[in-house]
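Milestone M4 deliverable, item 7.
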Amino acid sequence: MIYLTLPDRFANGNSSNDNAGQPNCLNTASATKFHGGDLAGLRSKLGYVRGMGASTLWSTPVYKQVGEVNAGTSSAACGYHGYWADYTDPDDQSIEPKLGTSADLNGLISDLHASGMKFMMDMVVNHAGYGARIHAQHPDWFHTNCTGKDVTCPLAGLPDFAQENTNVAAYLTNVSKTWTSNYAIDAIRMDTVKHVPTTYWQNSWVPGVLAARPSTFLLGEVFNDSGSAALKPYLDAGFDSLFNFPLRTSLVNGIAKAGSLDSVASSVQDYVGNLGLSRALLMVNLLDNHDVQRFVNEPGSGVAETEIRKRYQLALATLMTVPGIPQLYYGDELGMYGGPDPDNRHDMPGWAWTDAGRNATYSGFLGGGGTPKTTYDYVQKVTGIRQSNEALWKGSYAEMWRPNGGQNVYAFYRGSSASRVIVVMNTSTSSAAVNLDIQGNAGISSTDKAALTNGTAFTDKLGLGAPPSATVTNGKLPVTLPAGSMGIYVAGSSGTGGGGTSVTFQVSASTFYGQGVYLSGNTAELGSWNVASALNMTPSGCSGSVCTWKTTVSLTPGAALQFKFIKKPGDNGAGVTWEGGSNRTYAVPGSGPVNYNGGNWQP
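Output delivered:
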């Protein structure tokens, strides 16, 4: 998962730089000026970011910014967001002084890498900031005649680089190459991609930055929600990924605004079918970001907060389960409200960093029967489900049900190796009974069909009102969903025609980011001591690195189990770490559901 932050609005870790750089740009009462956040503050909160399940931190640009714009007027503003770069020739690689220094940026990246996370650097080559030094140095490097096209017309009046000029192209690519070489970045998010000729990306920028740092992940912003056909040319030009604005629009219309889930199903089918699975898996899916109003604002003020919370939970779970890489925007994990820019860029509150602080109601944050802690814990849960089930981040996709103008039910299948998941939601106002065809679905592989025989038990990991389990019957998975519910059903081993006992195993364990806890034991259902077949477990109730890990499986009544919990990948570079001590034992009761509380991990 990618987590987007504006460093200026996240945390202030060094107040001594608040007034550094351009004058008249620090004003915490102004929505369009700097508020004091910086790289040191962001660095100090990485545990918070990692704790919600993020694996990549995306920071808005850290370039040195131009001075105050529209000084002395009600629209006075400064580049707190990072997109008004004060470019100069030769390039000086200056970091915005209010955000910190080169050492701060290197320290942030080093800390991320030490915790198993990655850093995505935001870059801009479409435009310079208002009054940037380079505009006076090279006025002939900029478009002056707007022809009504994205490429030649200035965005918001910003000086628009003419990348068709070979000198401009060489300058901009070299600037990006130098940043890419100087810092151990893992990925680049490129701003305003559709405003630049695709030939520049293909022939200059992409090969340039990849020469500077091979294997850098290249993510482009093409703000176009018409469909995947409009995005494909930029992938063909060399970007690894693009933001999935078409999917975002469908999630707003289909879930936030309680429209038809046909729009969601059609959007997913469009990008998976048109781009192919490998590209679809790399698309970056979002509910909101710094350029659109927050998702919790989309339903509108006339919708009750209890209903907004329900819709938000449905959307977050969908975001984490459809093909692609999910992206959250700072504050999403707290249910932060925010209208269009700049109202969607409020400061992170000081109470955000602890469970105790989040466990209260606050103006400007989603209530509806919960608190910011409720939202944060739910985000932890759905990111944990995604992390624990390979099918959700690298698996195939097959649609299983859509409304087709009828009741609002949408279901799909994800599969990868032994990880098999069915996701189903009902956003209508009444219950829905569906019979999800597995054996007759042409999108599900023959290998997966062979594994999902009659009696195979599926267990819901989400707990959002759907039945806790379902069993394959006559080649189909029958599920009756209450109104407004959703299930993320994970397949266990083959059942015994529905006669097994459902047992939930749990253990408390400390892990590092990217490490999971699994259950391995002496029966086929527990993987027969084969670590590759061990049952993945889902984390919840985390405090720092310690979480409660759970998995539910259908077992033969009376079976005498021997088992242990394991960690994959293992500690200290090992492939797997087993619990210490003797094997755990358990006699499966004749009926269920039942719980096995394993207490703490055995060192």
